[in-house]
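Thread: phosphoinositide 5-phosphatase, structure

OP (GT): Posting the sequence first so everyone is looking at the same thing. Length is 728 residues per the record. Can we get the structure tokens written out before standup tomorrow? I want them in the notebook alongside the other entries.
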Amino acid sequence: MKCLLSQQSEGEVEEEDDLMPGTERESLARGMSSQKGREYTIRLALEKKQDQYIDLKGITVYIASWNVNGQSPGSICLTEWLSRTNEPPDIYAVGFQELDLSKEAFLFNDTPKEAEWSNSVKAGLHPGANYFHVRTIRLVGMMMVVFCREEIKDQLRHIAVEQIGTGLLGRMGNKGGVGVRFELNETSMCFINLHLAAHVEEFQRRNQDFHQIFNRLGFLVNDRVKYIKDHDQIFMFGDLNYRINPATIDATKAKALIEQEKYSIILEQDQLREQMRLGHVFSGFTEGPINFRPTYKYDPTTDNWDSSEKNRAPAWCDRICYRGGNLTQIDYTSQPQYKLSDHKPVSSFFNAKIKVINPARQRKVYEETLKQMDRIENEYLPQVTVDIPGTNQSSHSNRNEINFGRVKFMEALRKTFTVANTGQVPVHLEFIKKLNDSHVCKEWLKIEPVHSFIMPGETCEVELVVLVDKCTASQLNVGRDTLYDILVLHLESGKDIFITVAGDFERSVFGCSIAALVNMSEPLTMISPGKLIELEKGKMPVNHYDIPKELWFLVDRLYRIGMDKEGLFTMAGLQNELLEIRDWMDTIPNTPIPGNADSIAETMFLLLDCFPEPVIPFSMHLKCLDSAHNYTACKQLVRQLPAAHRNVFLYLTSFLRELLNHADKNGLDAKILALLFGKIMIRDQNYNAKANARVERTKATFIYQFLVNDDYGDDLWPEMGEELLSLS
């Protein structure tokens, strides 16, 4: 569908188009002032002409990365790693992984090693210059420290940091990334330190981690989000954990080839190189030639390969990749003389050219642009066409409809449309809030880009993404919200374009309440919308089950395949398996639950996280926190829970106690489980609330009481006892 929209001439009659009964489309929108819009248009027009007033200035960038295996630096000197260039670099970005492997760091993100390694880095910087500390950011064991030379610090603007975990539920910080971004003069630069999933066979999980980080990590700059892809120069580095394909080169053969320095033969079987060739990760990125020994795995304090029972094959786990114009890699190497860790540090030195404004030429271009704008504003009006593929629409109507069809929980759907500037003047487009709305669109919808500047003859592709997640599923399940929204695309000095977005949500057990689930004797897909609404209102209290059958199925499967799984509940599942398990739970076919133990464990967390009211209801949170340090008070609070919530709490803590009986194999610890389940069972009402470390500790303490005390059980559930664990 192509729809032509332009400023109406005086006397024209606009074609009527019903929006909704009794509502005028124009009454929904509000635009920016014309003066503000004009200034914005001129600024963007100037950006389009940058080549007329921009010069390129050379700087140097030093990237360094090291997985330190939880070790403290002690008296180690980092000069050989960080100061090996003749000339002092202008910018340093130094990343660490596994900075601290202690339970305290994992549980509460606290560690004294942040200061220890930061001080060691500062001491190891090139002595030929004075350096300014730009930023430090850390998430559990991932840390990055960024410095720049004192003489360029005033040229940095819009400095921002961000972090993202890719562990369980996409937020546990044992794996993920930390980032720093800024603009140096007119060039935006972004540095991302990564730690991706481990184990040789988990390359798909590493791919998944990369895409989560690349697509979700965004920096807030001037009230707008800048994603990694939005930067001129990008450096992504760290312990990427890609290995050598064991099916073609085993550890013995790899070591023999390494001794002959035949690295290229081994690198032909390198997982990262293969995944990049296939276009699965790091699209558009470059990695320089590797002419150094693998950086992993060594016996700590030696240069000997891994001699443990696992006998891990050597691999280049630690990598540096880059993307963007005006970047030249000078070298790429490792520093094998450092023996503190089972990894060797890597580093790379770059020449970069950044854009610098020539004020005199900019002023001249500005004056010419202003004159041009004055002339064309008097002669022409904005005119665009909107092309939405796959729709049939009269070219004289301003109603544009995009229908996503069937939408499932946690399964993103994307559609794009094109806006073309068919007029004679530059056009500034921006999606704006409707009258009395606080957001541009509903929570389940994402727009990219939110605003754009289109020169005559050019086009802009807009992507809409619909994703129903834990924040929106419950409202959609019971009809308090629908997949329907009206977007207002504001054309500066022209008309507002209205775009209708719609879809049909397939209801799911994810987002249903505990009270509703225990009253469902059938799979959710067999329950009518009306009955589900009645169940959620509590108007059909039958109590078919003591706990939701869906929860029982998940726990039962973990009993069968996951009790001895190392690190259960700390690793993310595979996205494709999570979707398969979702479908299974909504239909409950007569087949085993699909997926591996990690995927089932994450699905269980996701189910708990999606309850509209958590296991410990919001109204009881303060009392819960107050009683956390007194086990008797904790038990008394559990007795006061609604029956179904109490049963779920006891069922889960009984399962966790059994899981701890296998700690010699799964390596789990009561404190870790208490923290993880405290976050979910005593979930904050605001999903996006910033975590409070003291509150998180108190939540964990409450759960911990039920995992370690010997007198747990009979006095809390006298009527059911162990029968609950054998629900059928």
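GT: Both are above now. Quick notes for whoever picks this up: The chain has three domains: 52-357, 381-506, 544-726. The domain at 52-357 is CATH 3.60.10.10 (Deoxyribonuclease I; Chain A).
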